[in-house]
Please model this.
Amino acid sequence: MLNNAFAERLKQSVQNFAHCHLSSIFGKIQFKNDMTQTPPCIKCQSAVTYFDGSLFHCTECFHEWTQEDMDAAENSAKVLDSNGNELFDGDDVTVIKDLKVKGSSMVVKRGTRARGIRLSADDPTHVQAKVDGQTIFILTEFLKK
Ligand SMILES: [Zn+2]
Model:
């Protein structure tokens, strides 16, 4: 029985090793892709872009940007709902709490479906949504997809 336990532990550690190994290969593939493909333009989303060694250039709107700009955009632009799912322009969401709309007598009831949300560029904690024909801003922590 002792041998069995030992064999089991060995198998486990081999699996752990295999897992680490796979991840590092995957990391390398990712890296290779990053080197050969330039990302879409962060301004106009055009796919026709090139990298000159320090700056990315867009051939359509002539925007120039750096890797740092892209990292910053990635980190700041994520808008998450109450479950941590990323929200995008045009998503339909459900309100999970009764919400009083500031500056009006309107109350958005829990379970209300808000269609076609718009993200705001400078505030990832709110989205713009149309409810009962009114455009309102809702805290994303009270929304779910
Ligand atoms: Zn562009």
About this structure: The first strand starts at residue 49 and ends at 51. The chain is about 30% helix and 25% strand. The pocket of zinc ion is lined by residues 41, 43-44, 46, 58, 60-61, 63 (CB under 6 Å). The beta strands are 49-51, 56-58, 64-65, 93-95, 99-100, 107-108, 113-119, 126-131, 134-139, 143-144.
